[in-house]
Structures are given as structure tokens and as C-alpha cells.
Amino acid sequence: MNARPPIAMLAELTHRCPLSCPYCSNPIELARIDSELDTETWKRVFREAAEIGVLQLHLSGGEPASRRDLTELVAAAREAGLYTNLITSGIGLTERRLRELDEAGLDHIQLSLQGTDAAMADEIGGYRGGFDRKMQVAGWIKDIGFPLTLNAVMHRRNLHQLPRSIELAVEMGARRIEVATVQFHGWALKNRDTLMPTMEQARETDAIVTEARKRLKGVLVIDYVPADYHSDYPKRCMGGWATTGLNVTPDGEVLPCHAAQTIPHLQFDNVRDNHLRDIWYDGSAFNAYRGTDWMQEPCQSCDRKLKDFGGCRCQAMAIVGDAAATDPVCIKSPHHGALQVQADAHAHSDRKDLVHRTAPGKPIPEPAE
Amino acid sequence: MIAKEDIPFLPRGVRLHFDKVRDQWVLLAPERAVTLDQVGQAILSELDGIRSFGTITEDLASRYNAPAEEIAKDTGGFLGALLDRRFLELRQ
């Protein structure tokens, strides 16, 4: 199969995190600290990534600041020639640590936002004092001059705070904001009744984003991830399976996307055993849904198949039970109608409680009956 | 619009990078990598944070033996798009 080199790598340095957001993109089964890759292995993985064409390295988690060797890892990634992006909640970063990261050559910071005030943000993040600390960290980021993207994760509980989130990004001096409506994978699936936006909210969000993009042209770039279940066509997930990026878990598994472990029949290779090049080009998980040969109808004969590659494999797995099915978000999917009914029911649920994610090695909570 | 006297420069976090694997120049920016053609690379490698937009386009025009007005228009369009994406900044 003709695969092109990957452009981006998401390095999930750890699953440890002081926050416990109920939509966390980490898997339900979290990697424990004693299984995490050590410093030298990560450094080797960064060099391998650069060798095979990766340009952008996203250092993520969990909370990457929970790794004590973060600064050393950033320096190694820069030395390998990678553009380094730190994806953080800000918790665990001190002014001194930020200055060390600056010296190590960190290129950019993406700061998450759980809400625009302490009441909302600390409830969603499950961490009291988190919001105030984050604002302090944002101040240091601005003082040092790091380019900043604010990543505002939106859902039914906080969508009314979107206009303020955009203002906050401007005040922080951010160049970009990601307005990311929660994607329902992993932990978020346990919270659909509380977090699913209504159709009305989804359309209002479209309008707010359109207006703000016009008004803030040249000031703030707005990237927008719309509410998934309320769309007519699916997202081009990961730019197409195994076309653009790869994801390395804290214990070294290499995934085509961060949720790929929810597809039970896939087998993943590990950086401890193989060079990234072999994993990217020859790994069975990468080749499983690469290209279009694997597609069923209605995707196979669809003129959009190279546009969205049939949408998200993990969503097809979660909703339809078949990872090779058309993403049920698509209006051409036979399951689209059922998904819309389901989405509407979640969106109009009275539930307000949250199932927060747990810590690595701790029992997995379930929603109350 | 970029004025003649504006000094365009790549802000922190945006840099030119030669991609050895794909054998081409790219502009690396926050969470983006933009492939550059020869023209794009030629324009961006002129940005030194000292010379103004007017001077840069005049220099390009004489080097490539092209009408200055045309170069200014094309360069302005290219840099204007980068400005909108926050990959470029101006100082007076």
C-alpha cells in the first residue's frame, strides 16, 4: 500500500492528570506510572519520528507536566528537529518551569479551558482552585511570549460560556482558539446524558463562531469542531486513517488515533519492539483502514469517500458495532436516523451529574442508575 | 492590506524549515505545517525584520527581473493570507 509519511505525532507522555474531566480522551483503562516509557525511550521515539517525516510533535497526556522530565523531553524533540507543542491544563506548571521550557525551545502551548469561571471550570475539571491557577499560568505564558492556543472544550453544560471563552482568548493574547465540541468517545460516552448539546445549541454555536471569525479576522484564528451527532456528514477523522498522524500511548503502543484501542480486533505495535517506520508503514492497525479498499456501502460508491474517508472508525464501532461501517453521523448511513433520535434523547435528558474520569489503577466509575 | 513601510516578520513560533524527508521547504506554525513552493520560500526568506515590505518587493522585482507592481501584488496577497492566519506580524 502506498502510504505517505506522517506529519504529526501525539505523544501521550502519561495518563496521570490532576484534573478528571468527564470527557477525557484517554482510554477507560489508563496506563499506570510504572508502565510509562522512560526518558531515553521517548527521546529515541522522537528521533525516529523526525526520521520518517513527522514535523509536528504534540506533547500531551494526561497532563504532560506530570512528567518530571518534560523539559528534557522538549529539548530532545527540538534537537531532533521537531516543532514542539505542549498540550496542557496548566496545572503543574510554575513560572520557573515555564522559563525552563522556554530555554529548552518549546515552540507553542495549547492551554485547555474547562469553563470561563471557577465555578464551572473546577466542577468540570474536578479540581478546586484549578481555574485560578490556570489564569495565573496564562499570565506567565503571556509574559514569556509563548505562542498560545486556547482549547475551549464545549458541551451542553458550558456552551453558554462560548462568547466569554472567545473574549478570554483575546485577553490572554492567544493567536488561536479551538472551539472543540466534545467528541463522544471513551469517558465522554459515560456522560452523554449530561454533556450532549441540543440541536439548537449546536446551530447557535455555528452562528457565534461565524460571527466571531469575521469580527476577529487577523486577531484570533478560530478552529471549530462542531457537535458531531448533529451533523449531516461525518468528520474526516485524523485527516483519514493512517494518512497524517500517529499517537503513542504512555506505555509505547502506537495507535492510528487516540481512541483506536476501542476497536477490539486491532493489534498495536509497541515502540519498545519496533521502529516507528515499520509500525507506520507495515503495522496491521495502520493498514486496517488505510485507503478505501476496506469500505462497505454506502461508502464504497460514495463520491465523498476521499473527502471524509467514511468518518470515524471508532464511532462506527461504538454506535453500530462494526468499525468498517459508515460513520452513523452520515445521512447516508442506515443508522443515521436512530443516532439522531438517540442524540436528541441525550440532549434533552434532565441529568446534570458527571462521571469524572478516574486515576490510573483506580476502579472505573459508572453512571448512577 | 500591507503598506509599503510596514516591516513584515515571522513571529515567535513560526519558522521556515527544510523538510529533508519530503525534500521541500515548509512553514512550521502552531499546529500547522504549510508546504511552500519556490515563490513562497523566496518571499519568506527575505523577511529579516529590518527591511520594509516596499524594499523587499523592489529587491525581489530587480532580482527576478519582473515588474515591481506585479511582485508587490503577488507578495502582498501571499503575506496577507499569512497575516490572517496569524503566521505573520507587521511593525512600523
List keywords for this structure.
heterodimer, A: 369 residues, alpha/beta, 9-stranded mixed β-sheet, 13 helices, globular, B: 92 residues, alpha+beta, Arc Repressor Mutant, subunit A, 3-stranded antiparallel β-sheet, two-stranded antiparallel sheet, 5 strands
What is the mean pLDDT of chain A?
Answer: 95
DSSP strand content of chain A: 5-15%
How much strand content do the residues of chain B show? Answer: 15-25%
Q: Biggest protein-protein interface?
A: A-B, 25 and 19 residues
Number of strands of chain B: 5
The CATH class of chain B is Mainly Alpha
Supply the number of structural domains of chain B: 1
Gap between N and C termini of chain B, in Å? Answer: 13 Å
Gyration radius of chain B (Cα, Å) is 13 Å
Main-sheet strand order of chain B equals 2-3-4
What fraction, in percent, of the residue positions of chain B are helical? 25-40%
Q: Measured on Cα atoms, how large is the radius of gyration of chain A?
A: 20 Å
Tally of alpha and pi helices of chain B:
3
Major beta sheet summary of chain A: 9 strands, mixed
Helix and strand topology:
The complex is a heterodimer of chains A (369) and B (92).
Chain A lengths: L7 E5 L26 H13 L4 E5 L9 H10 L3 E6 L6 H10 L3 E6 L4 H8 L4 H15 L3 E7 L7 H10 L4 E6 L10 H4 L3 H17 L5 E5 L19 E4 L5 E2 L20 H7 L1 H5 L16 H4 L4 H8 L15 H12 L22
Parallel strand pairs in A: 1-2, 1-8, 2-3, 3-4, 4-5, 5-6, 6-7
Antiparallel strand pairs in A: 8-9
Chain B lengths: L6 E3 L5 E5 L4 E6 L2 E4 L2 H7 L8 H11 L4 H17 L4 E3 L1
Antiparallel strand pairs in B: 1-5, 2-3, 3-4
What's this, in brief?
The complex is a heterodimer of chains A (369) and B (92). With 369 residues, chain A is an alpha/beta fold.
